[in-house]
């Protein structure tokens, strides 16, 4: 019945539109009026005069199942919420609930960049080391003897040791030098740089082993040898014509000499060490070939043939004389027999620096 009355009322109040140009205007007016009325009378429109504050009623766990009065529509009454325990009439009005929200998910923050460090200083490219040359030895002393045949000079260093040094230019005996020496294959040295000169002297003392004795009363002499040098030392003749005292073969001596004009050496004093003479000798001299009768090896009694005398050495099986060149300078080692005879047991080249550096020129005891 209510629906029929509403229909009649709406028909009576309807506006008949005879001109289509008014259709859009009237439609917009109707839509706006409807929105206004809906907002005015709609539930929960906060801030309008049509409604109060919205309440949310939470149902209890127990419904009142008593029958209610039938309404106008003939339907049964909706079940009423039971009051609080004790039967009071007070209505349950909970606090407004918060709107449902999505669960809180914390944002994943990007990891902080690692703390920046000062950049390491750029490494400088390694400096190429200059190739190291052969090790040298500083030699400081006095030149006591020059040997043009071998291209070397004998330097007396502190302590009196004889040290042979190969050089293109030979200093005069008596010169005081400091030189960097490079040791060669045969044990002698070569100048690694030009020597520094610091004066000159006319007297010098040195030590060594006696490897030759000349008892000639008119010109007595003996040879003092070290590795790479054999120096002839003259002795003043006795006025009576007798043979002056001379050291024996193999004796270890220290001799003080005067450097004579031309470079010869004259004994001033001699000290002979106590003990048995050595039976193993170091020699330096010029190879004179083989003795035509005995086949023994001829070797000069001093390194420059100043004595004009040759030693005769028996050749051991260690030595191949075919490898030797007559007239060249050599280092040699010899054993002394009970009768004073000498046997060659080692030999090595010493002809200029080239010969001293040649390992193939060494034989027997001097072969490395």
What descriptors fit this protein?
single chain, 368 residues, mainly beta, OB fold (Dihydrolipoamide Acetyltransferase, E2P), five-stranded mixed barrel, five-stranded mixed beta barrel, 3 helices, 19 strands, 33% strand
Please tell me about this protein's structure:
With 368 residues, the chain is mainly β. It has a domain at 202-368: OB fold (Dihydrolipoamide Acetyltransferase, E2P) (Beta Barrel). The protein contains three helices and 19 strands. It has helices spanning 2-12, 23-41, 352-356; strands at residues 63-64, 80-81, 137-147, 152-157, 162-166, 175-183, 189-191, 196-200, 203-214, 221-226, 229-234, 252-259, 265-272, 280-290, 297-300, 310-315, 329-336, 342-349, 363-364. The radius of gyration is 65 Å and the shape is elongated. Residues 44-51, 56-94 and 96-100 have low confidence and may be disordered.
């Amino acid at each position: 019945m209510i629906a029929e009355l509403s229909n009649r009322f709406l028909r009576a109040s309807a506006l008949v539109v005879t001109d289509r140009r008014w259709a859009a205007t009237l439609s917009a007016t109707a839509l706006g009026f409807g929105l206004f009325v809906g907002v005015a009378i709609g539930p929960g429109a906060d801030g309008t005069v049509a409604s109060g504050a919205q309440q949310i009623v939470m149902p209890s766990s127990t419904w009142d199942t008593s029958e209610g009065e039938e309404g106008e529509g003939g339907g049964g009454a909706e079940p009423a919420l039971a009051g609080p325990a004790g039967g009071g009439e007070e209505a349950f009005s909970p606090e407004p609930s918060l709107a449902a929200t999505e669960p809180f998910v914390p944002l994943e923050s990007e990891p902080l960049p690692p703390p920046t460090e000062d950049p390491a200083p750029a490494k400088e490219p390694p400096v190429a080391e200059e190739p190291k040359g052969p090790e040298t030895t500083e030699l400081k002393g006095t030149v006591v003897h020059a040997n043009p045949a071998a291209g070397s000079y004998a330097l007396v260093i502190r302590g009196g040791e004889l040290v042979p040094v190969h050089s293109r230019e030979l200093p005069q005996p008596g010169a005081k030098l400091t030189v960097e020496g490079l040791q060669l294959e045969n044990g002698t040295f070569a100048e690694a740089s030009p020597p520094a000169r610091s004066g000159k002297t006319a007297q010098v003392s040195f030590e060594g082993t006696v490897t030759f004795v000349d008892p000639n009363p008119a010109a007595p002499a003996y040879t003092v040898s070290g590795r790479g040098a054999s120096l002839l030392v003259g002795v003043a003749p006795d006025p009576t014509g007798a043979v002056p005292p001379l050291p024996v073969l193999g004796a270890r001596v220290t001799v003080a000499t005067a450097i004579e004009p031309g470079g010869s050496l004259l004994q001033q004093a001699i000290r002979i060490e106590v003990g048995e003479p050595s039976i193993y000798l170091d020699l330096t001299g010029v190879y004179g070939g083989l003795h035509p009768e005995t086949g023994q090896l001829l070797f000069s009694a001093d390194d420059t043939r100043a004595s004009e005398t040759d030693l005769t050495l028996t050749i051991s099986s260690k030595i191949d004389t075919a490898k030797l060149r007559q007239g060249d300078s050599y280092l040699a080692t010899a054993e002394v027999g009970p009768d004073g005879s000498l046997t060659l047991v080692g030999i090595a080249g010493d002809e200029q620096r080239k010969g001293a550096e040649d390992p193939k020129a060494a034989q027997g005891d001097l072969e490395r």
